[in-house]
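Hi everyone,

Forwarding the result from last night's run.
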Amino acid sequence: MGDEGIVKVGRPRSSRVLWPVLLALLAVVGLVASVRIGLTSVGAAECPPVSPPISPSLSPPISCPVSPPVSTTTTLPATTTTLPPTTTTTIFTQPPAITSGPVTSFTAGSPGSFMFTATGTPTPTFSITGALPAGVTFNPATGVLSGTPAFGTAGNYPVTVTASNGVSPNAVQSFTLVVILPQGYRLVGSDGGVFAYGGSQFYGSTGSVQLNQPMVGIAPTTTGGGYWLVAADGGVFAYGDAQFYGSTASVRLDQPMVAMAATPSGRGYWLVAADGGIFAFGDARFFGSTGSIRLNQPVVGMAAARSGAGYWLVAADGGIFAFGDAEFFGSTGSVRLNRPMVSMAPTESGRGYWLVAADGGIFAFGDARFYGSTGSIPLNQPMVDMVATPSGLGYWLAAADGGVFAYGNAQFFGSTGGIRLNRPIVAASR
């Protein structure tokens, strides 16, 4: 009989086909579970590779969990380091500037000193160019000018001073060292004998020479290192640094010579006769005379203007005759004198003069100041000459016996008042 009507119990045919698929699916589920378990156990480790590869269509993408960063703290032993302090040095520089004065004065025969000063950074040093007088030196290490100027070096010494410190520009100054004459005086006798006192030096005389005519005057050089003597016949005798520039010894004069004066340069001189005739030698220039004028009284003395471009003549009655740029400041020409005038002396400025009479009376004109006189003192011998001090703040009067009278800042250094002279004193000078 056939199989119709019989119910058969068993697995359907389709189940046979699905079974292997179910087993495969279970295998995949198990694999995924194992992978997840593995990732959970690894933690911060790398995600292990999946093997065998899983088809993307069968499982969702797998993401590896990322562990938070681990913070690690390492404690090192504490150390202390002391660094040296940092010093910043700023260097300031400044060019030099000379602060000391442009002139100073030394006195011949006396020690002197002058220090140059200047500002600037670094500290400046000094140098000078130019001639200094004998006896004076400059120390560049200290900037000091010092020494004792030799006698006969009076005058002006211009030099150039330079201060330098390596910073431009250098400082330059025109500086003048003035060497002034020391206080002192000389007396000259009619025989040409010379007597020197104080800082005035002796350089020679004609005391032992037979003269044709007596001496009548003396004039110093500007340096103080020499002098000229003039005789009544115009003969000139030069001593020390004085140079001979000529004379009238061989000339027939209308009137005898009475005085002489040197030019400010010391390279010439004038001679004056009793009639006011002027004779110029060397660099002395002729500016006029009274040689052709009838005088009330003879000329007895003369003085040179400070500039060298003029001179004054004084007559026995105190009349003053000014020539060149010498100015007239007054006279006693109209005054009745007790004794006649014998000489005159200019002030240091050249803006005045003194006249001296035979009794020692003093008459001051211009900027000349009166410091005293012997006008009221009985004298053993009459006055013959006067000499102003280098500063012009005093004067000496000299008498025929060599007596000396000092006034103002003039100092007394000695005289021949107590000495028996071969011939009387006739003139005086510094």
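The chain is about 5% helix and 35% strand.

Cheers,
N.
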